[in-house]
Amino acid sequence: MGNLKFRFEKFSKNNTLLSILMVVLGLVLIIWPGKTLTLATRILGIALLVGAAVSGFSWYRERGKSGESFTSLATAILCLVVGLIVLIATKGVISLLPKLIGAFVLVNGVINLAQALELRNAGQSSWTSSLVMAILTILLGAFLVFFSFSAMQVAVMVIGGVFVYNGVSNLWIESRYKKTDNTNK
User: What is the pTM of this model?
Assistant: First the structure.
């Protein structure tokens, strides 16, 4: 039982350090969401270039020996091209994902609008609420398409807020646990 208590105390110290780091990271994400996105995207680009180098080296070492050397070469070329695109067009890469999601939501909103108008033609009383929801869906989709960088910054800030909350709640619970542990001695 004593060994388990020692392990839990060690976990508790690591959890406290992790919680503090989580709060700090969360605050960084909240205060500098754009710079954080840019840095993370550049790190991804560098990682892809490293992957290209590793795959290229693997291809060079294994060329002519098996069919897998072609896979290594293809992977190297793909990682190189994507890595360069990510590093050269960082802001475009950041804004691409929300634009794609926004386009999907926008098309869905247009379909919802057509359905709401069909409900009106069918004499359904719920057509007005369906119309309002369809218009809201269209507006949200358009927001993601036209203001994708802002949407990504807001998403990063929300993630940062979750990190801060998680870190603070961990620290608070840990402090309560330590108080309980001290009173039981």
Answer: 0.59
Residues of the domain holding 151: 11-177
What is the number of other CB atoms lying within 10 angstroms of the CB of residue 45? 20
CA 132/CA 111 separation, integer angstroms: 13
- Could you report the average pLDDT of every consecutive run of 10 residues in the chain (185 residues)? 56 73 87 86 91 88 71 87 92 80 88 91 89 93 83 85 87 75 60
Total domains in the fold of the chain: 1
Is-contact 71 113, C-beta < 8 A? no
Q: Residue 38 domain-assigned?
A: yes
The dihedral of CA 29, 32, 35, 39: what is its sign?
A: negative
Is residue 3 domain-resident? no
